[in-house]
Amino acid sequence: MYSEEVRNFGFVNQAIPAGLNIVDELNALKKKKNAVILAHYYVADDVQDVADFVGDSLALSQRAAETNADIILFAGVHFMAETAKILSPNKKVLLPDLTAGCSLADSCPAPDFEAFLKNYPNHTVISYVNTTAAVKALSHIICTSSNAKQIVQSIPVEKPIVFGPDSNLGNWISRETGREMVIWDGACHVHNEFSLERILALKNQNPDAKLISHPECQKPILEVSDFVGSTAMLIKYSYTDNSEKYIVATEPGVLHEMRKHSPNKTFIPAPGEDANCACSECQFMKRHTLEKVYNCLKFELPEIDLDENLSRKALKPIQRMLDISAKLGL
Ligand code: 13P
Ligand code: SF4
After folding, report:
1. What fold is seen in the domain 104-189+313-328?
2. Residue of the nearest CA to atom 9 in ligand 1?
3. Third-level CATH fold of 194-269
4. Taking the complete model, does pTM exceed 0.90, yes or no?
5. 273 C-alpha to ligand 1 centroid (Å)
């Protein structure tokens, strides 16, 4: 049995033997171990390319719930791998870099959220999937940006709602549905940092480009957008819409999938406040390199480990989300 330190970090940065073809080796390992690689659209292009399935948060949780694999290697952030473990407690769930957290999930610590909820005893608590298992366990129902509108609308109008933790998404849903909600004041460091001024300048230079944005962006950016939607919705819009050029206000990893669908269209990543930094990249998603993915599957470490009692509590609100999404065909 490995020590906790080794289990968490021991093999991640192990040197890869010279000349090894990582992609071929990964394919062989997947077969031998009956493993599946799930990746979010925000991870690096070469990691997306070795995945069996690439999706947004909703699609990934649906896949994690239905796979027959013995091992799920999750190329995404910690809460996503944790959700996969909650949905498949008997499977081994691996995360190539355990430090791949999420600033949005961090903006809502469970003890603070629990104290906050004491002020709203009769409310239905809807939490975004970008939360820890402990916050999910305090919630009645989970949502992602692909189904948040429908999940809010599924709650009877007379029932007051607490929505957390993303305030930009919560306020956007509130404007879209006309439902007033108590909203936790959290944000994602990527989507919250886009610069309206620099986006407008880019629009001026590219008058033929449409601005498409994720609802985790701030209100002024959403107001000037031609389309607002989850990661999967933005991708779909980019190939079903008839424009040739788009300014994309979400994590630029999605451009890989957009370009696959529309190789002749132009996609411009929206700029953040600081011209000299890659602030619009999610530093957590980008922690997974191909080398780490290989070492992770080879050594089956680091593994997601979750308290069974907490896992059972967190499962209920996730299952409610999946049931509603299936009923609505989402
Ligand atoms: P979606 O995958 O639901 O679009 O969420 C975006 C995100 O920030 C994931 O961390
Ligand atoms: Fe979290 Fe933002 Fe990264 Fe998504 S993009 S994983 S919300 S930090």
Report:
1. Rossmann fold (3.40.50)
2. 57
3. Rossmann fold (3.40.50)
4. yes
5. 21
